[in-house]
What does this fold into?
Amino acid sequence: MLQSRQFARVLDQWPKDEEAINARYLIRAGFLSKTAAGVYTLLPLGQRVLHKINAIIREEMNGVGAEELSMPALIPKRIWEQSGRWEVPVVYKLTGADGEEYGLGWTHEEVIAEIGEKYLVAEKFLPRAVYQIQTKFRKEARAKSGILRGREFLMKDLYSFHATEADMRAYYEVVAEAYKRVFARVGLQALVCEASGGDFTKDYTHEFQVVAESGEDLIYVCEAGCGFCQNKEIAKVGAGEQCPQCSKGKIEEKKAIEVGNIFRLGKRFSEKFFMASYGIGPTRVLGTIVEVSHDEQGIVWPEAVAPFQAHLLVLGKEEKTRERAKDLYEKLIVQGHEVLFDDREEPAGVKFVDADMIGCPYRIVISDRVPEGEVEIKKRGRAKSEVVGEEEMIKRVFG
Ligand code: ATP
Ligand code: MG
It folds into this structure.
């Protein structure tokens, strides 16, 4: 991508109406634009990152045998009334041309259970699993956390259907493992945390929590690292007490962001099968990555989800230098590499500042001073740069 052709760009100033780190950095760096409180546009750079997160999620969901589908956002009141969830406070309600009332989809258990009842009519059709990556709407009271808490946001929701409770429980464990791989692959350290089922189920649910100062959840974690983790809302222990699991460590209270949540629903939504549901918020994941991976200069993207693997900068006045950079850019593109090329007529200082703000994993510089056939490379987040030959750079940056 040529930076001179980008629709959006790095802004000179921090947004005035945002407190959350994720929104401040993403807006400043040109990934995100605010349309209303809790309602955001993902600009092209943000969309690239989201695609990568979604691709990882899709791979892992397909890997556990789930098929992708797409359910509506406009859901008739009838469906919500059957489950008793028409009166849930987060539902946006609207009236159609026919006078019919609708709720905007905030989760899809009811919709998929009804479809499941049509197809999964005998034991021989079970087990089955389907998922979607789709826009959800929730009337969130507070929308001060940027894309961590949208009123409109993206969710990957997976639903599984089973003939027996044992089968549901076994598959739940399989999906939990896939969730761990998703979070590890996008560069997040997620703790598996027990929590109450809330509106969904009486059974324990499992939340995937990323420790972060900006987190709205409080969790209790064993300091000895035995894996014990409970949401404070249900916790049977208190901070400072001995860990009930390993009896070695003490329980610490931490702030955390819930990036995923899985539920054993049993027969709550249909008498015909046991169901479980599994959610991840890809837009919340994107925001969480920024919350835990940035410095004063800007975002520091993990390689797996970076908008581009490398940011190529050309500095200097000489025509020869510009030609060299252009040739290198074209060569890298032909090789199939993802490169953002800062070909703008801007001073070096501006280019460096913008590159750090955008946060691609590698910066490659060609300038009048760097000898022909060589480039300067620097890994984002490190202080030192190095001058290496072009082929060596390709190996190191894209190898
Ligand atoms: P929270 O407690 O943070 O409000 P929740 O428990 O209501 O979330 P779930 O119904 O479990 O959320 O939704 C599944 C996943 O969808 C969450 O783990 C989170 O990643 C994401 N998610 C939920 N609400 C939002 C939101 N308002 N904005 C962005 N992502 C969200
Ligand atoms: Mg949840």
